[in-house]
Every structure is written in structure tokens, then in C-alpha cells.
Design goal:
Elements: E1 4-11, H1 21-36, E2 42-47, E3 50-55, H2 61-69, E4 74-83, H3 87-103, E5 107-114, H4 123-137, E6 142-143, E7 150-156, E8 161-164, E9 168-172, E10 180-185, H5 191-201, E11 204-212, H6 219-236, E12 239-245, H7 247-256, H8 262-280, E13 286-287, H9 300-307, E14 314-315, H10 323-332, H11 336-339, H12 361-368, H13 374-382, E15 385-389
Parallel strand pairs: 5-6, 5-7, 10-11, 10-13, 11-12, 13-14
Antiparallel strand pairs: 1-3, 1-4, 2-3, 4-8, 4-9, 7-8, 12-15
Bound molecules: adenosine-5'-triphosphate and magnesium ion.
Magnesium ion is lined by residues 187, 189, 345, 347.
Length: 397
């Protein structure tokens, strides 16, 4: 494909992974393919620690760039124009291709790399000619070789010539799926979608679990959760969502256990059920959006009490963050506006007036022991609904 656009992608922390590198890179390539597939035709190959994506001429380059910008495991990427290895063609193509990138710049420089030694001009000559062409086309520009606003790169490769703008930082992290599977407990709040995003960024493939208590929680609350996951799916691809019917368990807690322990017992039920559902689907850890001390059920003693029902590790990526820090990420990943919509979560049903913030484990166990929850837990596990959520699942509320 000549005179078409290419995205050159450099992987991130992959370089550190020694022998695992090949596996990581193949997962990354699979994820890039999946992100671009809905947008049109392209060809992808990797060479010299760079992944090349050749876009078909009819592909929307902006959309392709957006999609690539969200794939985890990419350190940076740049757009390039591929053109014939002919200096006249390069000089003709460069100004219009670079016009946008150079519009806001005051200074620039041109760097050239010539891996095809058969090309008749040497790198410094190529740079000089392309630089002169750009200077004569754009009167506002000056050359600054030390600290330019924009660096233009011309590469002469075996296949063809490439004219490239500055690279853009990628989403960072590790390719989704490279770190294994975990289940995120997702509510409609601000925190859990951020927790999901952060763990996906470390290479986790997500399954999501949501507890719903109709009629106390509405269908809109459920759509809200799906919308949040849909936003996260823009980064990590589709997510399996498991919806657990939780009304009977919450009602049983409210009717049989001391009020001050309602929330703690409810959280222990959520954890038990989630662990079972997660294990059955190959997940090796749970993820929550808890942050130390944020609410009564997130004090250290409360977490000791919830974790004591588990053998699986719980990842809490927000544990040391302030609400403000979490909110910044929520805005960046575009979940915040959905999170603040006022549809009730099951956690806000049957909340005690005076929850225990410093519970003793034995007291919680005793409070919970007032009722045998085994049958209700089994019923909830057997009554789940499942569906896949992807970037297109978003429904306007
Ligand atoms: P969030 O903003 O994520 O809702 P929060 O600060 O409101 O968190 P809690 O309501 O105490 O805190 O919930 C703590 C964590 O428990 C959540 O981050 C989430 O991981 C999980 N959780 C809460 N409600 C639900 C639910 N209905 N279904 C699944 N998980 C839930
Ligand atoms: Mg919540």
C-alpha cells in the first residue's frame, strides 16, 4: 500500500519480560487486532520491536488512532505516511501530510534514518532537503535541532519510505490477558469502575460481578452498571458480566441479624458468592473499589472481617487513594458522569443507622450465625444471569 497511512507501535514494559516477551507480544497483537477490527481493513506485522499496522485507504485514521491509544501494553505510537522511495515523491507528500502537526509549532527538525543503503541519498541530505521544503512551505517555522516543538522523521526502509510525526504516549500497562483472569465486584459507584480499569491495565482479563436487589434496585441501576463496564471495555475489550439476585439474602440479613452488622454481613455474603462464581469461571482473584477508611465497611477491621470468608486474594487497587485522586481517573476514563447518576445500589438498601467501624471478627461471625444462609447462597449462585458487555453496549440513560 503506497501513500497510505501506517501506525507504528512500540510496546511498553514488554521489554523487561525476557523469555515471556514473545507471549506478551502475541497477546498485545491480538488485542490491537480486536480493537481495530470493527473499524475496517488493515494489515499488521511486527519487526524490529515495532508493530506495524497498515491501514486500508478507506479506514478512518482518527478512529484507528483512538482505538490504539486505549490498548494496554503500548508505550507509544506514531502515525506515518508510507510513500514511494523516491525523494521527489517524499518532498511532494511531506508538507500536506505534516500540515496539521506543524500548524501550532514554532520550531522543528527533521531526522532521517536509512536502513535501505541502496537509496541514493544519505540521511543528512534527506533531512536537509525535507527541512528546506518544509521551511519554504510554512513561513512561520524555524529549525531548532536541540529543542524542537516537532520532530519529523523520514525513514527509508526496504519496503518503502515513511514520513512520521512525533510519537504519542500510549495507554501504558501490560496487555490485557497477560496477567490472568480476575473478577471485579462492580457497583454503580465511582470507585469500582476505576478499580476495574486499573487492574485491566496491569494485564488482568476482567469478569464482572454485580449484585442486584430488585425491586429495591431498579432496571436503570443495572443499565448504569452496564454502561460503566462498556466504558471500561473500550480499554480492555468485552467483559463478561454476571448479575446475582441478592434481594432474598439482604432481606434475610435484615430480618435475622443485629442491625449494626447488616453491612458487614452483606459484604461477607458478596465475597463468598463472588469467590464461588469467580472460581467456577477460572478467575484467580477478586477486585474491589475499596479505599481504606472511606466508609464504615472499609476500615481495616471491617476488611479483616470480609476477607476472613475468602481463600482467594482480593486486589484493591484504590486502597491508598483519596476520593479526589480516584475521581481524576474516573473522569479520564469517562465513567464519572455515569457513576454520579442517582440510581440506587443494593449497598444503600437496609443500611444501619450506626454501622460498626471496629468490629471484632467473632462478633460478626456470631451475628451472622443467627441464620443459616447456605440455601440462599446456593440459590443466588444458581440464579445468576450472564451477558457480555463491549464498547458498543452503552445505552443513553
Ligand atoms: P463504589 O464507588 O465502587 O460503589 P463505594 O465507595 O460506594 O464503592 P461500597 O458501596 O462500600 O463503596 O462498596 C465497596 C466495594 O464493594 C465496591 O467498590 C465494589 O467493588 C463492591 N460493591 C459494592 N456494591 C456492589 C454491588 N451491588 N455489586 C457488586 N459489587 C459491589
Ligand atoms: Mg457503592
Amino acid at each position: 500500500m503506497i501513500n497510505s497511512q501506517v501506525i507504528l507501535i512500540k510496546s511498553g514494559e514488554l521489554v523487561l519480560k525476557g523469555l515471556n516477551r514473545a507471549t506478551f507480544e502475541s497477546i498485545l497483537i491480538k488485542n490491537i487486532r480486536a480493537a481495530l477490527k470493527p473499524l475496517g481493513r488493515f494489515e499488521l506485522h511486527s519487526a524490529q520491536s515495532t508493530i506495524w499496522v497498515d491501514l486500508a485507504p478507506d479506514m478512518d485514521v482518527q478512529k484507528a488512532e483512538d482505538a490504539v491509544s486505549r490498548v494496554f501494553g503500548i508505550a507509544n505510537y506514531s502515525l506515518a505516511l508510507e510513500c514511494e522511495k523516491d525523494i521527489d515523491k517524499i518532498l511532494a507528500a511531506a508538507p500536506s501530510y505534516l500540515a496539521n502537526a506543524l500548524k501550532g509549532a514554532k520550531t522543528f527538525k527533521v531526522e532521517s534514518k536509512r536502513s535501505d543503503k541502496k537509496f541514493p541519498l544519505q540521511s543528512p541530505e534527506i533531512s536537509k532537503m525535507v527541512g528546506a521544503k518544509l521551511l519554504s512551505t510554512f513561513n512561520h517555522l524555524k529549525v531548532d535541532v536541540h529543542n524542537p516543538d516537532v520532530t519529523v522523521t523520514v525513514e527509508i526502509r526496504d519496503r518503502s519510505a515513511f514520513i512520521r510525526k512525533d510519537s504519542t504516549p500510549g495507554a501504558g500497562g501490560l496487555p490485557c490477558g497477560s496477567a490472568g483472569d480476575a473478577a471485579v465486584l462492580i457497583s454503580g459507584g465511582i470507585d469500582s469502575p476505576v478499580a476495574a480499569y486499573l487492574m485491566a491495565k496491569r494485564g488482568i482479563r476482567l469478569t464482572a460481578i454485580h449484585f442486584a436487589s430488585p425491586p429495591y434496585t431498579s432496571e436503570r441501576a443495572e443499565i448504569k452498571v452496564k454502561n460503566l463496564l462498556s466504558r471500561v471495555a473500550r480499554y480492555c475489550g468485552r467483559i463478561k458480566l454476571i448479575i446475582v439476585p441478592f434481594t432474598e439474602i439482604q432481606t434475610a440479613i435484615a430480618q435475622n441479624c443485629p442491625e449494626e452488622y447488616f453491612t458487614l454481613i452483606m459484604r461477607r455474603m458478596m465475597m463468598r458468592i463472588s469467590q464461588e462464581l469467580a472460581a467456577r469461571r477460572g478467575c484467580k482473584a477478586l477486585i474491589t473499589g475499596e479505599s481504606l477508611g472511606q466508609v464504615a465497611s472499609q476500615t481495616l477491621p471491617a476488611m479483616v472481617s470480609t476477607d476472613s470468608v475468602l481463600t482467594m486474594p482480593v486486589f484493591r487497587p484504590l486502597i491508598g487513594m483519596d476520593k479526589g485522586e480516584i475521581t481524576i481517573i474516573a473522569r479520564n476514563i469517562d465513567t464519572f458522569d455515569t457513576s454520579i447518576l442517582p440510581y440506587e445500589d443494593c449497598c444503600t438498601v437496609f443500611t444501619p443507622k450506626h454501622p460498626r467501624t471496629n468490629p471484632k471478627l467473632e462478633q460478626v461471625q456470631q451475628a451472622e450465625g443467627q441464620y443459616d444462609f447456605t440455601a440462599l447462597i446456593d440459590k443466588a449462585i444458581n440464579g445468576v444471569r450472564e451477558e457480555y458487555i463491549d464498547a458498543n453496549s452503552y445505552i443513553e440513560l
